[in-house]
Amino acid sequence: MGIRKDESAEPRTGTGLYAHVVGWGMAVPDIVITNQDLEAIVETNDEWIRTRTGIRERRIAGERESTSSLGLKAARRALEVANMLPTDIDLIIVATSTPENVFPSAACLIQNGLGATRAGAFDLSAACSGFVYGVEMASQAIRSGSIRAAVVIGAETMTRILNWQDRGTCILFGDGAGAIVLRASEAEGGVLSAVLRSDGSGGDLLGLPAVGSIDLLNSDYVNDEHTLNKMHMNGGEVFKFATRVITESIHQALEKANLSIEDLSLIVPHQANMRIIQAAARALKIAPEMFMSNLERYGNTSAASIPIALCEAVQEGRIKPDDNIAFVGFGGGLTWAAMILRWGDPRPVDRRSEALINQGRREFSYFLVRIRASLRRFSRRISKLFGRSNRIQRLRDKADRLD
Ligand code: UT7
User: Fold this and answer.
1) 108 annotated active-site
2) Among 266, 127, 136, which Cα is nearest to 277's?
3) Is 163 designated active site?
4) Do the Cβ atoms of 137 and 95 come closer than 8 Å?
C-alpha cells in the first residue's frame, strides 16, 4: 500500500507542498420525503424507485433553508473538525447548481457567514462533478504555494429546481451540503492526483435552463421539454455515460498517482443510482462494498453527494489514516472527474486547551457576523427613514414655493 516514492506521475510543483484534508462536515435538512410521500405527487411507487435507483427517502430544504445556509453549517462543522479559525482560510469554493443568486455567489454568502475575512470566494459550476473539480482547484492553489488553506463545499437545494410533474427526475434528487477543509503541509499525502474531463456535446442530456445564458425568446433550448429554471434529464443516456466514465476516470487517476485499484480502501462516488455503482463495481472487478453509498437516505444531492458520503464514511469508521481513497463524480455539462487522496491529518494532535480556545474564537467570529448583520439592517432602516423624511421635506419645500 502507499505511494512509491519518486515515481509519482503528478507533476512536481517545486514547493514540496501537499494539500491535506484536515476537516469535514455535512448538513442536511430535517424534513424527510419518503418514496411513499412521492406516490401522492406523481404516478410512481416505492417498489419502482427502490429497485431502479436504490433510493428510499431524501431530504428537502425548509422555508428558511437555502443552499448557502446548508453550506455554511457544513463549513462551520468542517472548521471545527479542522480546529481552525475562519480567518485561517484563504479560499472558499462552493460547487453548486442551485445558488440563491447568480451573484452574490453562495461562496460569498458563506464567506460572510463564517467571518472568513481573508478569503477569496467563488461558486463553481460543474454540476454533480463540481465538488471534485473544486477540491482539485483548491489543492493546486495550495500545492503552488499561492494559498495555505481552503474550504471546499458542495451544497444544493435540488428540490427547488425539480419539475414535480416529471417522475423521471423528481423522485431522484434531494437537498444537503458537505464541506472539507484543505490545508498545506510538507508531509507527503493528501490529494495525490486528479482527472477532470468534460464533453459539452452531451449538454442537452442534462440541464437547467437559466436566465441570461441565451436569448430565451428565440431559442430552441427552452421548449416544451426544457423549462426555464427546471431541470431536465435523459436518464437512460446519462446512465450509460456514467457507468463508462466512472471506470475510465478512476483508472486514469490511479495511473497518475502511480497506484493500482488494489491500493484503494474506499471509493466515494457521486450518489446517483445504486445500479450505476453496481455496474461500475463489475467493470472495475471489485466488490460493490468498496463503494461508499448513502443514496438510500438522501437520494441524489448533486455536488453535495460526495462530501456528504465522505463525512458518513468517516463517521462509520470506513476511512482510516493512510488509506488511499478515490472520489468520482459525473453529471451535467457533461462533466466527470476522479481523484485519489491519501487520508490523514499530518499535524501533531492538538492539545485540548488549544481546541477549546479555537472553539471560543470561532463562536466569537460567528457572533460578530450576527452583530454586523443586525447593525447593517438597522442602519439601512435608519437611512430609509431619513430618506423618507428628506423626500417629505422636499415635497414641503415644493409646496412652500407654490405658496
Ligand atoms: O446526477 C446526475 C447524474 N444522473 C444520473 O446518473 C441518473 C442516471 N439515470 C438513471 O438513474 C435512470 O435512468 C433513471 C432512474 C432516471 C430511470 O431508470 P431507467 O431504468 O432508465 O428507467 P426508464 O427511464 O428506462 O423507464 C422505464 C419505465 C418507463 O415505462 P415504460 O415506457 O417502460 O412503460 C418509464 O415511464 O419506467 C417508467 N418510469 C417510472 N415508473 C414509475 C420512469 N420513471 C418512473 C417512476 N415511477 N418514477
Assistant:
1) no
2) 266
3) no
4) no
Higher-pLDDT residue of 398 and 167 is 167
Of the residues 300, 311, 324, 358, only one is catalytic, namely 300
Separation CA 20–CA 181 (nearest Å): 8
Residues 190 and 22 sit within 8 Å (Cβ to Cβ): no
The domain segmentation of the chain, as residue ranges, is 10-205+227-342, 348-403
DSSP 8-state assignment for residue 291: B
Of 199, 290, 309, 206, nearest to 244 by C-alpha is 199
**CATH 3.40.47.10 for domain 10-205+227-342:** yes
Q: How far is the CA of 50 from the centre of ligand 1 (A)?
A: 12
pLDDT at 2: 42
**Angstrom distance (rounded) from CA 10 to CA 143:** 11
pLDDT for 41-93, tens place per residue?
999 999 999 999 999 999 999 999 999 999 999 999 999 999 999 999 999 99
In this predicted model, what pLDDT tens digit does every residue of 2-20 receive, in sequence order?
444 444 445 456 889 999 9
Q: Average pLDDT of the chain?
A: 91
Lookup: cell for 389:
423624511
Query: Is 300 a residue of the active site?
Result: yes
CB 54 within 8 A of CB 273: yes
Give the integer Cα–Cα distance in Å for 181 and 134. Answer: 12
Rounded to whole angstroms, the Cα distance separating 403 from 397 reads 10
Query: What's the CA gap between 336 and 284, in Å, rounded?
Result: 17
How far apart are the C-alpha atoms of 60 and 272, rounded to whole Å?
A: 17
What pLDDT does 374 receive? 86
C-alpha cell at 140: 493546486
User: Is residue 300 lining ligand 1, measured as CB closer than 6 Å?
Assistant: yes
Instruction: Examine the pLDDT at 334 and tell me if it is beyond 60.
Output: yes
Q: How is residue 367 written as a grid cell? A: 457572533
